[in-house]
Design a protein that fits this description.
Length: about 550
């Protein structure tokens, strides 16, 4: 009989309940935030990319539609809230609120009061006895407490928008409620400690997946929202954000943008929402996870399903049937997150000349002797890609976009390539780098240069000449365009120009460790004379004839 795979998790709890040592489940559907450590039972962890939990964006939009005609009846005054106070909300059911976390909230209120900042604590209405206990425990801060009645879900979601900051609970964190906060644009202050059980980490998982990567990086959202303990650090995070109205607004906008609520209906694209709300992306990750499990490619714990690649582009020559087919039937199905960028065709003479002029009044006469039409078109194609990257709203200036040419391949699979690329990106975060080669011709590897076994490593760049696959930041793209505009003439093909800029210290480049990257992702180059390879469209193309440039 074949091995039976029983997955626990779905969209509920990621782990089995009951006796952890005797569970019937073989696999737990989870992510790196809620399950950073091995489980107690015999389940292996299937790490979903970004988050194992996906919120129902259509349902939230439906709730908003149900209430929009009555939205005018909501106001802070109608909810018992002050128009000028910083409103701290915890809409969890009362049984989740323990004395320790309640005392932390009261201490934050006292500190804010001492700083002459009016603040209110907005809680879900408990029983009459629970209300009396809360007021008694609050002492001289009882006047800051406001209680909210239970209302239908559309009203609940609408009224949350009148708060400023959401507060997580200690014993069992906010999960579905954290999604409600994200929908309302409310940043959630929580605690992240890898040693904690999963149910204390779910609020962190939601907030990290509710904001686009670019926005989270620019706002340093993790630092603002995640405390290290439920006492001093937690209180300090609440007070710091309560005192910073600008950060509150920036986080609110980032959360609303994550769910697409800042977009007009004409511009809204469900594929461009943050991971928490992106069901298509979640399903694609789950499908890849099932493939790994069913094909028994590994028995590792965890089985890591890598994230899809952000702001990825592939330059495709549409006039080449074999290249277009390779992209549509091979690259795009394996990397559906990649955008097709139409290469400049050698026949687009006027467009090429216009692009060269825009780079700094260059002309085809300033191109190196014997340049082929393909080489000139390749240069202008990469320049247009760099212009897009400079203005790409998905990227912060120091984040990296992936650029492939249409003759790349993934011999060890797309996920192996994704994981190796993401590890290289993570390594680049600590480096001063404009561009990183993901492929280096083996013969270009310098003698005596060490080859390591870890694909997470990048090394200082050296003279090579291949833009088949690379990572580039908006800052690096802007620098390259500036360097080209400063040239009196184009003295080499674009691959060699980039390498020469680096050799002269004008551009900061790195390269993936050849041994490690190829061991983990495979050799990316499909070019070559073999029947299963792809002929070059650059080196064997006819030269650009001057008479063609009249």
């Amino acid at each position: 009989l074949p091995n039976i795979i029983i997955i626990n998790g779905g969209l509920g709890t990621p782990f089995a309940s009951g006796d952890k040592q005797q569970t019937l489940y073989t696999t737990s559907l989870c992510d790196q935030v809620v399950a950073p450590r091995p489980l107690l039972g015999n389940e292996s962890r299937l790490w979903m990319p970004w988050t194992y939990f996906c919120a129902d964006l259509a349902a939230y939009q439906s709730y908003a539609d149900q209430i929009k005609n009555n939205a005018h009846k909501f106001s802070r005054a109608s909810l018992g809230l002050s128009e000028t106070a910083v409103v701290l909300v915890c809409a969890n059911r009362p049984h989740k609120i323990d004395p320790q976390v309640f005392d932390a909230w009261l201490e934050a209120l006292r500190i804010l009061q001492a700083k002459n900042i009016q603040a209110q604590l907005w809680l879900l209405q408990p029983s009459q006895a629970g209300r009396q206990r809360a007021l008694k425990r609050s002492g001289n801060m009882a006047h800051c407490l406001v209680f909210a009645d239970r209302v239908p879900r559309p009203e609940h979601l609408r009224r949350l928008e009148f708060a400023n900051i959401a507060l997580d609970t200690l014993c069992y964190g906010s999960h579905t409620l954290a999604c409600d906060y994200a929908w309302a644009g409310l940043p959630l202050i929580t605690v992240y400690d890898e040693s904690s059980p999963w149910h204390k980490l779910v609020g962190t998982a939601v907030m990290r997946s509710a904001i686009h990567q670019k926005d989270a990086a620019e706002l340093n959202a993790q630092y603002i929202l995640e405390a290290s303990d439920w006492t001093t650090s937690y209180i300090n995070k609440i007070v710091a954000l309560a005192m910073d109205t600008q950060k509150q607004q920036l986080l609110k906008y980032a959360l609303l943008d994550g769910s697409g609520r800042t977009k007009s209906l004409l511009k809204f694209n469900k594929d461009h929402v943050a991971p928490l709300w992106n069901a298509r992306r979640w399903a694609f990750g789950f499908e890849r996870g099932l493939d790994r499990l069913i094909l028994a490619q590994d028995q590792n714990d965890p089985i890591n399903i890598p994230q899809t690649l952000n702001a990825a582009r592939c330059i495709v020559l549409r006039s080449s049937r074999i290249r277009s087919q390779h992209f549509e039937s091979y690259i795009k199905p394996q990397l559906p997150e990649i955008d097709r960028f139409e290469a400049i065709e050698t026949t687009e003479r006027q467009r090429i000349k216009s692009i060269l002029v825009s780079l700094g009044n260059l002309t085809v006469h300033t191109i190196f002797n014997d340049a082929t039409a393909g080489q000139i078109a390749c240069l202008t194609s990469h320049c247009l890609v760099w212009r897009e990257i400079v203005n790409d709203p998905r990227l912060a200036p120091d984040q990296f976009a992936l650029v492939l040419e249409d003759d790349a391949e993934f011999p060890l699979g797309a996920d192996a390539f994704r994981l190796a690329t993401l590890q290289a990106q993570a390594h680049l975060n600590d480096q001063d780098c404009d561009l990183c080669y993901l492929y280096v011709y083996p013969t270009a590897w310098p003698d005596g240069f060490p080859r390591k076994s870890s694909c997470a490593q990048t090394i200082p760049g050296f003279y090579t000449w291949c833009l088949l696959a690379y990572l580039i930041s908006p800052t690096g793209a802007k620098k390259l365009l500036s360097l080209l505009s400063d040239l009196q003439d184009i003295y080499a093909p674009i691959d060699c120009l980039v390498a020469d800029f680096a050799k002269r210290g004008l551009l900061k480049i790195r390269a993936v460790d050849t041994g490690g990257f190829i061991d983990n992702a495979g050799q990316l180059d499909k070019r070559g004379p073999a029947p299963n390879k792809m002929p070059s469209n650059l080196w064997y193309a006819p030269p650009w004839q001057e008479e063609d440039d009249d």
